[in-house]
Structures are given as C-alpha cells and as structure tokens.
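Exercise 7. Given the encoded structure of a 539-residue chain, write a plausible sequence.
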C-alpha cells in the first residue's frame, strides 16, 4: 500500500469552495458600484460614487471564510503516514540476511560495516521485545544461523561470533539464495513476515529473483545499505589494514548504483544505516504495517494530521473579541459545529480536552500512551473500555464487560480474563462457547487445550503446591481489538530448560567454530579444524 499524501474523509473537501464563494457574494453585495450600475452610466459611475477611503482591513466575513477553508481541510483528515493499531500485538516475524563478504570489513562506518550491522540487529531485537527474529548469512551461498526466535541472548551469542571468514570467499553475492532461504523460514510462520538485508553491494544477476519474489510471495523485503559511497580501507582478519600490490590501502566503496537499480526494478524499499535508531524504527514500522495490511486491510489506520489545523483556527477565534465585530457569526459557527459533531458534548467537568475531543478519543490517547487506568475512565465504548481494564490488570472488571458483549471474540476475551484469575473451568466454558459461535477458531482451540492441560496439572499437584506450581506464569492475549487473531499461551508447570548460553558453553567448540563447521558441512566441504580452543568448556 502506498503511503502518499491523501485525505481520510475526502467528501469534506466539498465544503472547501464555500468559503471563496461566500466572500465573493459578500463583496458583490456590499459593492456600491453594483447597486448603481443600472441607474448611472458606467463612464460616470466611477466618478460619482464615493468609496471607503480607509485602507483594507480584515472583517468578520474574511475570518468566516478562512474558518470554512481550514475546517474543511481539517475534517477531511490529511494524512501520509500509517500507524499501528494500539491493540495489535507485535507478532510480525522477521529474518535478517547479513552479507559476510570481505567488503563488510571496510572501516568507512565505525568500527567496521559488519560490526555496525551487528549492532543494528541488537537494536532491532531491543525494539522487537517478544517478536520473532531469525538470522541468515550469505556470500556466494546462504546459510541459516538462527530460525526466528525471541531469545535475545541466543541472538547475541551468534551475532558476536559472526565474521567474514566464516564463509568461503566466492564470486559474487548470491542474495537470491539468501532470499529463498529467508522465504522458506518465514513461510513456516503463521503470519506474513519481513526480510531485511544488511549489505554493501549487490549483483545485478540477482534482480530477477527479487522481482519474482515480489510478485509471488507474501513476505516483504527491505534493503539496508551499510557503508558510504566514498568508501574506506579494508581491515584484514588479523586486524591490520589490507594493502594492494602498490602498498596503498585497499579501498571498498558502497555499490550504491547496484542497490538503486534493485530498488527501482523490484520496488524494494531502500534505506541507509544511520548513526541513530531511526533506521531500526523504520524497519519495525514497516514490518508491523506489512503484517496488518496482509492479514486484514480493514485494520490499517492512518495518522490523523488534521488536528494540527486547530492551532490556526484558535488564533482566528481570538479576533472575535475585537471591539465592534459582529459576534453573531460566532453563534452561527458554534451551532453549525455542534450539529456536525458525531457525539454529544460532555461537560461534566470543565476540562479543556472535553471542548475538543470526545471521551473515546481521549481514552484512545491515554491507551496509546499506556495509561490504561485513565483510558478505562474515559472510554464509553464498552469494547475499548474492556480492553483498557484488561491491560490495566483489572481482569474481573474486564470480564464483566466482555460477558455483556456479543460475538465469539467477546467470549474469547472472557476466557482470557478467567485464565488470568486462574479460574480454568470457567475459562474452558468460555472457550467452548466461543468455538460454538465460530469454527474454526484456532486461538480458542489452542487455549482450550491449554486449560484442559492446566486443569489436569492442578489435579495431579498436591494441594499445598497448587498456588505455586500450577498457576500460569505468563498470559499472552489477543490484542487485535476483538478480532480474535492473536494467540494466548498460558504456561503452567514446565520442564526445566538450560539457558542458551549454558547450553553453548557445554559444547566443545566456540559458537564461531560451530558455525564454521556447520556451513562447511552444508556446502559439502570437509569440516575445518577449530580455529582455537577459546570456545571450549570453561573450568
């Protein structure tokens, strides 16, 4: 979906010409030349009519016309940027494709291109708390490092092990094989995902693969260019700067022209890695937007920028207090505004926000700023109010509201509320009712199975241990705004699992040697000897 400038409610623009037409009519009505034109000869009229000798000054009619013009534009809802629905859980899977060619050792980006790209992946993981992120690397061949996971510690361990000598140096960059591998990983996910390439170059022979991917795949591709067009010296494996046959440092430049050709022909968004966090925020926004667009176009929301026109409208309103002005225009505009207002005005308390925003709009603002308590107080819409109470942790109050709402989604959230209160039998009944209303309902089916499992665990655990062992320690709810597209997992007593770093320390090789051996085996080559014993089992 294009994100160009447009209006959310374009029919309001029909009011736009009313302002100029009103000004034209008022000018003709108050023009003395028009009143005497039929009585006095035109060549004498200009000399016989004595006009106003004062210079031009603004009149109430001018401000009325300005209000009509600005108000019509504001009500039309100008926008050019998508926003994520506040109830949408960040479930957008993502796979990072990292270029491990020798050019990534260039030092035009401090400390090197590869180290900067690895740091960006860490920043992305920090932004995507709970989101699943995978990692693959490529040069002339592509290899998976990690499937999509939300384990930041595991990702950090393998990121630190990445270096340009893990893969054999080959001819060209086979980005197409990385694209195929990433697409395979994301196709195994239930939701559409995003593939993010970190690279400093591109082989034009791979462009047809990306064009075909855009036409046939539900996964989107983003390109992040790492480096500068001026380039920088290459750092060798020993940390020294590489030199050519003439003794001069080898300079590696960003292949910006090839990346631009890819972006143009395959319609792939292209951005540069920045020193701040704007690039990773852009990636995260694009991933979430892509998920929302593919899953349900009706859930796409555009940011409302018409509110900014309220500031000039308030400044214009200040002129109504000038002496001698016609105050009756204020009452005309006021009654017109009240007639067009979609909801009744709330004047229970004299807050300035009540003059401009409905209670639901105020609740939405508090919800987006994660002040769920105030959001629950402001919301009048029962669905939104129930969600705010649910997010605030007032599950019993939320349950009472969801029980009054119709539909399978409301029953689903009723079951979630019961689950948070460890009332598994009631939650099971709510999920059963949701399944009777809608089938298939995968999320309700999964939660129903979990409730049955937890009920069995509760029966098998001694009474004195039930409160500690059989209660769920985490609940992830559907946050699609009562659309039933999220998934809740209620986890009870789980088998003990070793952390990823402890598991890796029990191996006899370091993560770098492990990856080097894995890649060699996948390429059909003999496994290399470990580079060092530094990654062995610690004492």
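Solution.
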């Amino acid at each position: 979906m294009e994100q160009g400038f447009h209006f959310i409610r374009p029919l309001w623009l029909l009011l736009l010409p009313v302002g100029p037409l009103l000004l034209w009519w008022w000018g003709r009505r108050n023009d003395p030349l028009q009143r005497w034109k039929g009585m006095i000869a035109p060549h004498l009229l200009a000399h016989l009519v004595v006009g106003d000798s004062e210079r031009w000054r603004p009149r109430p009619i001018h401000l009325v016309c300005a209000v009509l013009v600005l108000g019509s534009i504001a009500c039309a809802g100008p926008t050019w940027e998508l926003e994520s629905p506040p109830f949408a859980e960040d479930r957008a899977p993502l796979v990072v494709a990292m270029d491990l060619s020798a050019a990534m050792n260039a030092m035009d980006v401090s400390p090197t291109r590869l180290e900067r790209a690895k740091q960006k992946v860490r920043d992305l993981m920090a932004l995507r708390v709970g989101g699943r992120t995978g990692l693959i690397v490529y040069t002339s061949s592509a290899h998976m490092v990690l499937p999509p996971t939300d384990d930041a510690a595991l990702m950090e361990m393998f990121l630190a092990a990445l270096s340009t000598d893990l893969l054999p140096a080959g001819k060209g960059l086979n980005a197409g094989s990385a694209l195929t591998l990433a697409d395979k990983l994301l196709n195994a996910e239930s939701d559409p995902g995003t593939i993010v390439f970190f690279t400093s170059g591109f082989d034009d022979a791979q462009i047809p693969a990306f064009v075909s991917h855009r036409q046939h795949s539900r996964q989107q591709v983003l390109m992040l260019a790492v480096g500068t067009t001026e380039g920088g010296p290459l750092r060798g494996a020993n940390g020294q700067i590489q030199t050519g046959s003439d003794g001069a440092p080898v300079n590696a430049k960003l292949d910006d022209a090839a990346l631009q050709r890819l972006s143009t022909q395959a319609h792939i968004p292209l951005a540069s890695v920045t020193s701040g966090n704007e690039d990773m925020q852009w990636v995260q926004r694009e991933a979430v937007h892509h998920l929302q667009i593919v899953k349900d176009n009706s859930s796409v929301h555009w940011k409302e920028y018409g509110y900014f026109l309220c500031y000039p409208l308030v400044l214009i309103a200040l002129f109504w207090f000038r002496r001698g002005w016609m105050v009756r225009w204020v009452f005309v505009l006021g009654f017109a505004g009240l007639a067009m207002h979609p909801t009744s005005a709330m004047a229970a308390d004299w807050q300035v926000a009540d003059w401009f925003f409905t209670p639901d709009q105020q609740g939405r603002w508090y919800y987006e700023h994660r002040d769920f308590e105030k959001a629950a107080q402001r919301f009048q819409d029962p669905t939104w109010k129930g969600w705010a109470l649910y997010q605030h942790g007032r599950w019993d109050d939320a349950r009472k509201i969801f029980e009054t709402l119709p539909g399978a989604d409301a029953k689903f959230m009723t079951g979630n509320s019961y689950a948070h209160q460890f009332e598994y039998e009631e939650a099971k009944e709510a999920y059963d009712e949701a399944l009777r209303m809608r089938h298939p309902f995968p999320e309700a089916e999964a939660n129903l199975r979990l409730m049955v499992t937890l009920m069995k665990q509760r029966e098998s655990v001694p009474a004195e241990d039930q409160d500690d062992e059989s209660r769920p320690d985490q609940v992830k709810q559907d946050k699609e705004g009562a659309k039933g597209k999220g998934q809740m997992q209620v986890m009870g007593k789980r088998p003990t699992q070793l952390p990823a770093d402890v598991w890796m320390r029990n191996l006899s090789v370091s993560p770098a040697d492990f990856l080097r051996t894995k890649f060699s085996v996948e390429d059909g080559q003999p496994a290399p000897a470990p580079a060092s014993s530094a990654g062995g089992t610690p004492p």
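Remark. Residues 1-83+301-333 form one domain. Students should compare their own answers with the one above.
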